[in-house]
């Protein structure tokens, strides 16, 4: 079973890129972020024609998340992160897909920091950590996948001082991500590739793609029930180099399927 996360940065604008990658990579489940489209403009039929059913939570111009499943309709269980009734941003969706509970998230960027936007980022992170703990307590095979907007460690960013004041690398952001791992979630890409860069994002500015000046912002965390099934993980860097590409590349894991009982 192959599960991927992909910040598509505008699903309708990048639809040819997405469809091309789906055909080439053939993931079973995909978590998408930054749809940048209201619910009525989600390209469900084009994805269905490509073999994927979907559930989504859209928002005009900003945010937006979706879960795609090849050949099977995901069973949506949540359309918002619990803990704040006033939160109307489309940043979280959760669904049961082929025996796995999949949570797709787009965490706030938090810039500029310090300030209200950074405070909101940390508050959202606290809500995520609280909900993630409830998923662990339920002892179900679960995945947290998406654009966490955090660079967990120095090795997850190219050598530079230019991002030092950015919300993505602040100690509070890194501590919140580390808190998820302390709960028992497994960083799947780092489990398979403990050292070295695993960049998933290259800003459009300052020739950063050509210079490989990347950051690792997109993560796939596995619950203890699912982690033993991890067989491979990686980043499809080539997608970032395609014409009209998102500034992110897809990250993915493959999981061994559970043998069916006779």
Automatic annotation (TrEMBL):
Provide the Endonuclease/exonuclease/phosphatase domain boundaries: 4-248
Task: List, alphabetically, the Pfam families matched.
Answer: Exo_endo_phos
GO molecular function per UniProt:
double-stranded DNA 3'-5' DNA exonuclease activity
- The main enzyme category here is hydrolase
Q: Does the keyword Magnesium apply?
A: yes
Tell me which family the UniProt entry assigns to this protein.
Belongs to the DNA repair enzymes AP/ExoA family.
Please give the PANTHER family that the UniProt record associates with this protein: EXODEOXYRIBONUCLEASE III
Supply the name of the protein.
Exodeoxyribonuclease III
Q: In the UniProt record, what gene is named as encoding this protein?
A: xth
């Amino acid at each position: 079973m192959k599960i991927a996360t992909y910040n598509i940065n505008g699903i309708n604008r990048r639809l040819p890129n997405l469809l091309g990658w789906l055909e080439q990579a053939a993931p079973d489940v995909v978590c998408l972020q930054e749809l940048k489209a209201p619910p009525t403009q989600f390209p469900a039929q084009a994805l269905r024609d490509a073999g994927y059913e979907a559930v989504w939570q859209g928002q005009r111009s900003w945010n937006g998340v979706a879960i795609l499943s090849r050949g099977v309709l995901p069973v949506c269980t949540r359309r918002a992160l619990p803990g704040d009734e006033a939160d109307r941003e489309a940043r979280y969706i959760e669904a049961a897909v082929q025996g796995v509970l999949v949570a797709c998230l787009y965490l706030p960027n938090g810039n500029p920091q310090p300030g209200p936007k950074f405070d909101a980022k940390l508050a959202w992170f606290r809500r995520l950590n609280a909900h993630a703990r409830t998923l662990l307590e339920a002892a179900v095979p679960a995945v947290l996948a998406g654009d966490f907007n955090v660079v967990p460690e120095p090795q997850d960013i190219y050598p530079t001082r230019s991002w030092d004041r950015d919300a993505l690398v602040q100690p509070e952001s890194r501590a919140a991500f580390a808190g998820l791992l302390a709960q028992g979630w497994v960083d799947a890409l780092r489990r398979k590739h403990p050292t070295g860069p695993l960049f998933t994002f290259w800003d459009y500015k300052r020739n950063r793609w050509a210079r490989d000046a990347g950051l690792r912002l997109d993560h796939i965390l596995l619950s203890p029930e699912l982690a033993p099934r991890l067989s491979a993980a990686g980043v499809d860097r080539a997608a970032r180099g395609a014409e009209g590409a998102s500034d992110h590349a897809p990250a993915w894991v493959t999981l061994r399927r559970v043998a069916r009982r006779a």
